[in-house]
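Reply to dn_fold:

You asked what the input looked like. This is it:
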Amino acid sequence: VQLQASGGGLVQAAGSLRLSCAASGRTFSTYIMGWFRQPPGQERELVSAISRGGSITYYVDSLKGRFTISRDNAKNTMYLQINSLKPEDTAVYYCAAKSTGDVASSQPAEYNYWGQGTLVTVSS
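and this is what came back:
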């Protein structure tokens, strides 16, 4: 599967963004999907993940309440709604697909496919 992330940009603190991840192919629904982010000079970290059917979601505790992950398997697309943006949310956001297992993982190495990343910059 090929992944294309989009929707990033420059936004003021307290603003909102919706990131999208479009997948090619007809097997999107067979992947557990995740959003990762990599702030400048830091390691890539899991933000959120969603099950194949979309009924189970996972969020990093510190981000709960501001981030909402969703997917539309009919459109081969995953979304990340980010509200109340903070300067510390500045990062490149990546979408990723995991083909094996039944649960999401916080380890980037366990994801098989990656999008190219979309930059989110939050100004104070």
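The chain is about 0% helix and 50% strand.
Hope that clears it up.
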